[in-house]
Protein backbone atom coordinates (compact mmCIF):
# COMPACT_ATOMS: atom_id res chain seq x y z
CA UNK A 1 0.00 0.00 0.00
CA UNK A 2 2.79 2.43 0.85
CA UNK A 3 4.62 1.75 -2.43
CA UNK A 4 1.43 2.41 -4.34
CA UNK A 5 0.74 5.59 -2.38
CA UNK A 6 4.19 7.03 -3.16
CA UNK A 7 3.20 7.09 -6.84
CA UNK A 8 -0.23 8.66 -6.59
CA UNK A 9 0.72 12.31 -7.10
CA UNK A 10 4.27 12.31 -8.55
CA UNK A 11 2.93 12.33 -12.10
CA UNK A 12 1.04 15.54 -11.26
CA UNK A 13 3.59 17.57 -9.28
CA UNK A 14 6.51 16.72 -11.57
CA UNK A 15 4.49 18.25 -14.42
CA UNK A 16 3.62 21.28 -12.30
CA UNK A 17 7.29 21.98 -11.60
CA UNK A 18 8.16 21.65 -15.32
CA UNK A 19 5.04 23.24 -16.79
CA UNK A 20 6.92 26.11 -18.45
CA UNK A 21 9.38 23.72 -20.13
CA UNK A 22 6.58 21.42 -21.29
CA UNK A 23 4.61 24.37 -22.67
CA UNK A 24 7.65 25.53 -24.63
CA UNK A 25 8.59 22.03 -25.79
CA UNK A 26 5.12 21.10 -27.04
CA UNK A 27 3.85 24.58 -27.89
CA UNK A 28 0.97 24.53 -25.40
CA UNK A 29 -1.27 27.57 -25.04
CA UNK A 30 -2.39 28.74 -21.61
CA UNK A 31 -5.80 27.13 -22.13
CA UNK A 32 -4.25 23.83 -23.23
CA UNK A 33 -1.92 23.93 -20.23
CA UNK A 34 -5.00 24.44 -18.09
CA UNK A 35 -6.55 21.34 -19.69
CA UNK A 36 -3.41 19.30 -19.00
CA UNK A 37 -3.39 20.36 -15.34
CA UNK A 38 -7.12 19.54 -15.16
CA UNK A 39 -6.64 16.01 -16.53
CA UNK A 40 -6.02 14.46 -13.08
CA UNK A 41 -9.43 15.50 -11.82
CA UNK A 42 -11.19 14.41 -15.03
CA UNK A 43 -9.53 10.98 -14.97
CA UNK A 44 -10.11 10.54 -11.24
CA UNK A 45 -13.81 11.36 -11.62
CA UNK A 46 -14.49 9.10 -14.58
CA UNK A 47 -12.43 6.04 -13.69
CA UNK A 48 -13.01 6.33 -9.95
CA UNK A 49 -16.75 5.86 -10.44
CA UNK A 50 -16.11 2.53 -12.20
CA UNK A 51 -13.92 1.05 -9.48
CA UNK A 52 -16.70 -0.46 -7.29
CA UNK A 53 -18.07 -2.20 -10.40
CA UNK A 54 -14.58 -3.55 -11.15
CA UNK A 55 -13.92 -4.91 -7.66
CA UNK A 56 -17.26 -6.74 -7.64
CA UNK A 57 -16.07 -8.71 -10.66
CA UNK A 58 -12.28 -8.87 -10.34
CA UNK A 59 -10.09 -9.37 -7.26
CA UNK A 60 -8.86 -5.99 -5.96
CA UNK A 61 -5.21 -7.09 -6.20
CA UNK A 62 -5.59 -7.81 -9.91
CA UNK A 63 -7.33 -4.48 -10.48
CA UNK A 64 -4.48 -2.73 -8.68
CA UNK A 65 -1.82 -4.49 -10.79
CA UNK A 66 -3.50 -3.32 -13.99
CA UNK A 67 -3.93 0.19 -12.60
CA UNK A 68 -0.28 0.60 -11.61
CA UNK A 69 0.87 -0.89 -14.91
CA UNK A 70 -1.22 1.71 -16.75
CA UNK A 71 0.45 4.39 -14.64
CA UNK A 72 3.94 3.18 -15.55
CA UNK A 73 3.22 2.72 -19.26
CA UNK A 74 1.44 6.05 -19.59
CA UNK A 75 4.36 7.93 -18.04
CA UNK A 76 6.79 6.33 -20.48
CA UNK A 77 4.67 7.00 -23.56
CA UNK A 78 3.99 10.65 -22.80
CA UNK A 79 7.66 11.61 -22.74
CA UNK A 80 8.55 10.06 -26.11
CA UNK A 81 6.07 12.07 -28.20
CA UNK A 82 6.18 15.49 -29.81
CA UNK A 83 2.41 15.58 -30.31
CA UNK A 84 0.33 17.68 -27.92
CA UNK A 85 -2.68 15.39 -28.12
CA UNK A 86 -0.70 12.17 -27.74
CA UNK A 87 0.87 13.75 -24.66
CA UNK A 88 -2.62 14.50 -23.35
CA UNK A 89 -3.94 10.99 -24.09
CA UNK A 90 -0.97 9.15 -22.58
CA UNK A 91 -1.13 11.40 -19.52
CA UNK A 92 -4.77 10.36 -19.23
CA UNK A 93 -3.72 6.69 -19.39
CA UNK A 94 -1.27 7.21 -16.52
CA UNK A 95 -3.84 9.12 -14.51
CA UNK A 96 -6.48 6.43 -15.03
CA UNK A 97 -4.27 4.07 -13.04
CA UNK A 98 -4.08 6.57 -10.21
CA UNK A 99 -7.86 7.04 -10.34
CA UNK A 100 -8.49 3.36 -9.61
CA UNK A 101 -5.80 3.15 -6.92
CA UNK A 102 -7.28 6.23 -5.20
CA UNK A 103 -10.53 4.37 -4.63
CA UNK A 104 -8.98 1.00 -3.76
CA UNK A 105 -6.69 2.15 -0.95
CA UNK A 106 -9.37 3.25 1.57
CA UNK A 107 -11.21 -0.03 0.91
CA UNK A 108 -8.06 -2.10 1.40
CA UNK A 109 -7.30 -0.27 4.64
CA UNK A 110 -10.80 -0.93 5.95
CA UNK A 111 -10.58 -4.57 4.84
CA UNK A 112 -7.17 -5.43 6.25
CA UNK A 113 -6.83 -2.96 9.16
CA UNK A 114 -10.39 -2.33 10.43
CA UNK A 115 -9.19 -1.38 13.91
CA UNK A 116 -6.27 0.77 12.76
CA UNK A 117 -7.98 2.85 10.08
CA UNK A 118 -6.56 6.18 11.28
CA UNK A 119 -3.01 4.89 11.71
CA UNK A 120 -2.78 3.12 8.35
CA UNK A 121 -4.54 5.93 6.50
CA UNK A 122 -2.03 8.32 8.04
CA UNK A 123 0.86 6.10 6.95
CA UNK A 124 -0.21 5.80 3.32
CA UNK A 125 -1.19 9.48 3.14
CA UNK A 126 2.28 10.33 4.44
CA UNK A 127 3.82 8.07 1.78
CA UNK A 128 1.70 9.80 -0.85
CA UNK A 129 2.90 13.17 0.43
CA UNK A 130 6.54 12.09 0.37
CA UNK A 131 6.20 11.00 -3.26
CA UNK A 132 4.51 14.28 -4.11
CA UNK A 133 7.30 16.25 -2.43
CA UNK A 134 10.20 14.38 -3.99
CA UNK A 135 8.70 14.68 -7.47
CA UNK A 136 8.15 18.42 -7.15
CA UNK A 137 11.61 19.06 -5.68
CA UNK A 138 13.64 16.95 -8.10
CA UNK A 139 11.80 17.24 -11.42
CA UNK A 140 13.64 20.42 -12.48
CA UNK A 141 17.13 19.30 -11.36
CA UNK A 142 16.69 15.94 -13.12
CA UNK A 143 15.50 17.68 -16.28
CA UNK A 144 18.51 20.00 -16.20
CA UNK A 145 20.92 17.14 -15.50
CA UNK A 146 19.69 15.21 -18.55
CA UNK A 147 19.07 18.31 -20.66
CA UNK A 148 15.36 17.67 -21.22
CA UNK A 149 12.04 18.02 -19.45
CA UNK A 150 11.28 14.50 -20.71
CA UNK A 151 13.70 12.98 -18.22
CA UNK A 152 12.20 15.02 -15.39
CA UNK A 153 8.79 13.47 -16.08
CA UNK A 154 9.69 10.01 -17.35
CA UNK A 155 11.87 8.89 -14.46
CA UNK A 156 8.80 8.36 -12.25
CA UNK A 157 7.65 5.47 -14.45
CA UNK A 158 10.33 3.31 -12.83
CA UNK A 159 8.86 3.95 -9.37
CA UNK A 160 5.41 2.95 -10.58
CA UNK A 161 6.82 -0.28 -12.06
CA UNK A 162 8.44 -1.13 -8.70
CA UNK A 163 5.11 -0.63 -6.92
CA UNK A 164 3.48 -3.27 -9.15
CA UNK A 165 5.83 -6.08 -8.14
CA UNK A 166 4.62 -6.92 -4.59
CA UNK A 167 1.03 -7.18 -5.84
CA UNK A 168 1.69 -9.64 -8.69
CA UNK A 169 1.93 -12.79 -6.48
CA UNK A 170 -1.23 -11.79 -4.62
CA UNK A 171 -3.03 -11.12 -7.90
CA UNK A 172 -2.09 -14.57 -9.19
CA UNK A 173 -3.25 -16.28 -5.99
CA UNK A 174 -6.61 -14.49 -6.08
CA UNK A 175 -7.39 -15.30 -9.72
CA UNK A 176 -10.00 -17.88 -8.83
CA UNK A 177 -10.84 -16.29 -5.51
CA UNK A 178 -12.44 -13.31 -7.22
CA UNK A 179 -15.17 -15.52 -8.67
CA UNK A 180 -15.84 -17.22 -5.35
CA UNK A 181 -16.17 -13.95 -3.47
CA UNK A 182 -18.46 -12.25 -5.97
CA UNK A 183 -21.69 -12.99 -4.05
CA UNK A 184 -20.39 -11.44 -0.85
CA UNK A 185 -18.79 -8.44 -2.55
CA UNK A 186 -22.05 -7.56 -4.26
CA UNK A 187 -23.05 -5.74 -1.07
CA UNK A 188 -21.77 -2.32 -2.22
CA UNK A 189 -24.79 -2.07 -4.54
CA UNK A 190 -26.97 -1.75 -1.42
CA UNK A 191 -25.06 1.28 -0.16
CA UNK A 192 -26.03 4.31 -2.23
CA UNK A 193 -24.21 7.43 -1.00
CA UNK A 194 -25.79 9.51 -3.79
CA UNK A 195 -29.12 9.17 -1.95
CA UNK A 196 -27.76 10.49 1.35
CA UNK A 197 -26.96 13.95 2.66
CA UNK A 198 -23.73 12.63 4.13
CA UNK A 199 -22.60 11.27 0.76
CA UNK A 200 -23.13 14.60 -0.98
CA UNK A 201 -21.52 16.59 1.82
CA UNK A 202 -18.46 14.31 1.63
CA UNK A 203 -18.35 14.69 -2.16
CA UNK A 204 -18.55 18.49 -2.01
CA UNK A 205 -15.88 18.73 0.67
CA UNK A 206 -13.61 16.31 -1.17
CA UNK A 207 -14.20 18.20 -4.42
CA UNK A 208 -13.55 21.65 -3.02
CA UNK A 209 -10.34 20.66 -1.24
CA UNK A 210 -9.14 18.75 -4.32
CA UNK A 211 -9.92 21.76 -6.49
CA UNK A 212 -7.51 23.86 -4.47
CA UNK A 213 -4.99 21.04 -4.14
CA UNK A 214 -4.68 20.41 -7.87
CA UNK A 215 -4.68 24.12 -8.66
CA UNK A 216 -1.75 24.48 -6.25
CA UNK A 217 0.11 21.48 -7.69
CA UNK A 218 -0.44 22.69 -11.23
CA UNK A 219 0.17 26.44 -10.88
CA UNK A 220 1.95 27.36 -7.63
CA UNK A 221 5.42 26.98 -9.14
CA UNK A 222 4.35 29.29 -11.99
CA UNK A 223 3.09 31.86 -9.47
CA UNK A 224 6.46 31.89 -7.72
CA UNK A 225 8.28 32.13 -11.05
CA UNK A 226 6.19 35.18 -11.90
CA UNK A 227 7.06 36.63 -8.49
CA UNK A 228 10.77 36.53 -9.40
CA UNK A 229 11.98 33.13 -8.24
CA UNK A 230 14.25 30.96 -10.38
CA UNK A 231 12.68 27.73 -11.71
CA UNK A 232 14.61 25.55 -9.24
CA UNK A 233 13.54 27.72 -6.30
CA UNK A 234 9.92 27.77 -7.47
CA UNK A 235 9.95 23.98 -7.67
CA UNK A 236 11.40 23.75 -4.17
CA UNK A 237 8.70 26.06 -2.81
CA UNK A 238 6.06 23.82 -4.38
CA UNK A 239 7.83 20.84 -2.83
CA UNK A 240 7.80 22.69 0.49
CA UNK A 241 4.00 22.58 0.57
CA UNK A 242 4.03 18.80 0.36
CA UNK A 243 7.15 18.33 2.50
CA UNK A 244 5.62 20.26 5.38
CA UNK A 245 2.48 18.23 4.78
CA UNK A 246 4.22 14.95 5.67
CA UNK A 247 3.86 15.25 9.47
CA UNK A 248 0.41 16.77 8.97
CA UNK A 249 -0.61 13.78 6.86
CA UNK A 250 0.51 11.42 9.63
CA UNK A 251 -1.09 13.42 12.45
CA UNK A 252 -4.39 14.43 10.84
CA UNK A 253 -6.01 10.94 10.62
CA UNK A 254 -5.20 10.30 14.28
CA UNK A 255 -6.76 13.62 15.31
CA UNK A 256 -9.82 13.02 13.14
CA UNK A 257 -10.28 9.55 14.64
CA UNK A 258 -10.05 10.77 18.22
CA UNK A 259 -12.17 13.91 18.06
CA UNK A 260 -15.86 13.57 18.65
CA UNK A 261 -16.53 16.24 16.03
CA UNK A 262 -14.45 17.35 13.05
CA UNK A 263 -15.58 20.97 13.44
CA UNK A 264 -12.33 22.28 15.04
CA UNK A 265 -10.25 20.69 12.27
CA UNK A 266 -12.48 22.04 9.51
CA UNK A 267 -12.32 25.60 10.84
CA UNK A 268 -8.59 25.48 11.56
CA UNK A 269 -7.75 24.20 8.07
CA UNK A 270 -9.96 26.86 6.49
CA UNK A 271 -8.23 29.64 8.42
CA UNK A 272 -4.77 28.48 7.35
CA UNK A 273 -5.77 28.27 3.67
CA UNK A 274 -7.46 31.66 3.68
CA UNK A 275 -4.40 33.38 5.16
CA UNK A 276 -2.15 31.64 2.64
CA UNK A 277 -4.24 32.75 -0.35
CA UNK A 278 -4.36 36.35 0.87
CA UNK A 279 -0.59 36.31 1.41
CA UNK A 280 0.07 34.94 -2.08
CA UNK A 281 -2.08 37.71 -3.55
CA UNK A 282 -0.46 40.53 -1.59
CA UNK A 283 3.18 39.51 -1.01
CA UNK A 284 4.12 36.34 -2.92
CA UNK A 285 7.86 36.98 -2.78
CA UNK A 286 8.38 38.70 0.53
CA UNK A 287 6.91 36.01 2.78
CA UNK A 288 6.86 32.97 0.50
CA UNK A 289 7.96 30.53 3.21
CA UNK A 290 5.12 31.60 5.49
CA UNK A 291 2.52 31.15 2.74
CA UNK A 292 3.98 27.74 1.88
CA UNK A 293 3.71 26.68 5.53
CA UNK A 294 0.09 27.86 5.77
CA UNK A 295 -0.79 26.13 2.50
CA UNK A 296 0.68 22.92 3.89
CA UNK A 297 -1.55 23.16 6.95
CA UNK A 298 -4.60 23.96 4.83
CA UNK A 299 -3.96 20.97 2.58
CA UNK A 300 -4.32 18.79 5.66
CA UNK A 301 -7.96 18.70 4.53
CA UNK A 302 -6.98 15.89 2.16
CA UNK A 303 -5.84 13.32 4.78
CA UNK A 304 -8.72 14.42 6.98
CA UNK A 305 -11.38 13.65 4.36
CA UNK A 306 -9.70 10.33 3.45
CA UNK A 307 -9.91 9.34 7.10
CA UNK A 308 -13.50 10.55 7.31
CA UNK A 309 -14.44 8.18 4.47
CA UNK A 310 -13.45 5.28 6.69
CA UNK A 311 -14.99 6.83 9.80
CA UNK A 312 -18.36 7.50 8.15
CA UNK A 313 -18.89 3.89 6.95
CA UNK A 314 -19.38 0.76 9.04
CA UNK A 315 -18.08 -1.84 6.56
CA UNK A 316 -15.50 -2.31 3.79
CA UNK A 317 -18.41 -2.43 1.31
CA UNK A 318 -19.78 0.86 2.59
CA UNK A 319 -16.30 2.35 2.52
CA UNK A 320 -15.67 1.53 -1.14
CA UNK A 321 -19.11 2.86 -2.11
CA UNK A 322 -18.61 6.10 -0.16
CA UNK A 323 -15.02 6.41 -1.37
CA UNK A 324 -16.04 5.98 -5.01
CA UNK A 325 -18.92 8.43 -4.80
CA UNK A 326 -17.08 11.08 -2.80
CA UNK A 327 -13.96 10.90 -4.95
CA UNK A 328 -15.54 10.53 -8.39
CA UNK A 329 -18.14 13.25 -7.78
CA UNK A 330 -15.61 15.35 -5.93
CA UNK A 331 -13.14 15.22 -8.79
CA UNK A 332 -15.82 16.49 -11.17
CA UNK A 333 -15.98 19.56 -8.95
CA UNK A 334 -12.20 19.66 -8.63
CA UNK A 335 -11.75 19.71 -12.42
CA UNK A 336 -12.76 23.37 -12.35
CA UNK A 337 -9.68 24.26 -10.28
CA UNK A 338 -6.65 24.04 -12.56
CA UNK A 339 -8.75 24.85 -15.65
CA UNK A 340 -10.28 28.04 -14.18
CA UNK A 341 -6.95 29.12 -12.74
CA UNK A 342 -5.37 28.69 -16.19
CA UNK A 343 -8.17 30.60 -17.93
CA UNK A 344 -8.21 33.45 -15.38
CA UNK A 345 -4.41 33.65 -15.39
CA UNK A 346 -4.28 33.92 -19.18
CA UNK A 347 -7.19 36.38 -19.34
CA UNK A 348 -5.92 38.76 -16.65
CA UNK A 349 -2.16 38.22 -16.81
CA UNK A 350 -1.97 38.06 -13.03
CA UNK A 351 -2.92 36.09 -9.94
CA UNK A 352 -5.55 38.22 -8.20
CA UNK A 353 -8.51 36.70 -10.07
CA UNK A 354 -7.31 33.07 -9.75
CA UNK A 355 -6.74 33.48 -6.03
CA UNK A 356 -10.17 35.08 -5.63
CA UNK A 357 -11.65 32.01 -7.30
CA UNK A 358 -9.80 29.73 -4.84
CA UNK A 359 -11.12 31.75 -1.89
CA UNK A 360 -14.67 31.23 -3.17
CA UNK A 361 -14.05 27.50 -3.40
CA UNK A 362 -12.73 27.54 0.17
CA UNK A 363 -16.02 29.00 1.39
CA UNK A 364 -17.91 26.11 -0.24
CA UNK A 365 -15.47 23.62 1.30
CA UNK A 366 -16.03 25.04 4.78
CA UNK A 367 -19.82 24.83 4.48
CA UNK A 368 -19.64 21.17 3.44
CA UNK A 369 -17.13 20.51 6.23
CA UNK A 370 -19.61 21.64 8.84
CA UNK A 371 -22.09 19.11 7.47
CA UNK A 372 -19.73 16.12 7.79
CA UNK A 373 -18.35 17.11 11.20
CA UNK A 374 -20.97 15.20 13.22
CA UNK A 375 -20.29 11.43 13.64
CA UNK A 376 -22.71 9.21 11.67
CA UNK A 377 -22.64 6.40 9.08
CA UNK A 378 -23.61 6.32 5.45
CA UNK A 379 -25.26 2.90 5.87
CA UNK A 380 -27.70 4.44 8.38
CA UNK A 381 -28.97 7.03 5.93
Task: Give a verbal description of the structure.
This protein is mostly helical and 381 residues long. The longest helix is centred in the middle third of the chain and has 30 residues. The chain starts with a helix and ends in a 9-residue tail after the last helix.
Keywords:
0% strand, mainly alpha, 381 residues
**Proportion of residues in helical segments:** over 70%
- Give me the strand/helix succession: HHHHHHHHHHHHHHHHHHH
What amount of the residues lies in strands? under 5%
Low-confidence stretches: 176-189
Distance between the termini: 30 Å
Please tally the β strands and state the result.
0
Largest sheet: none
Count of individual helical segments: 19
Name the average pLDDT: 84
Cα gyration radius (Å): 20 Å
| Shape verdict | globular
What structural class should be given to the helix and strand makeup? mainly alpha
Amino acid sequence: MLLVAVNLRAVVTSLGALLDEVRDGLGLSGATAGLVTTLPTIAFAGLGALTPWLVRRVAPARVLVVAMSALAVGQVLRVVTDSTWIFVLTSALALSGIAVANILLPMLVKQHFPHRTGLVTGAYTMALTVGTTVAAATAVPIAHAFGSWRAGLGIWAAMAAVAVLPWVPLALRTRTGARRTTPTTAAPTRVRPARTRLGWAMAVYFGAQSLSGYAIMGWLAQLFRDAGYQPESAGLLLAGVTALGVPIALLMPTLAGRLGSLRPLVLGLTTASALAYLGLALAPHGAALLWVALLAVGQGAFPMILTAIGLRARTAEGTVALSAFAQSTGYVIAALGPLMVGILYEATGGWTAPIGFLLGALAVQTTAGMAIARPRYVEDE
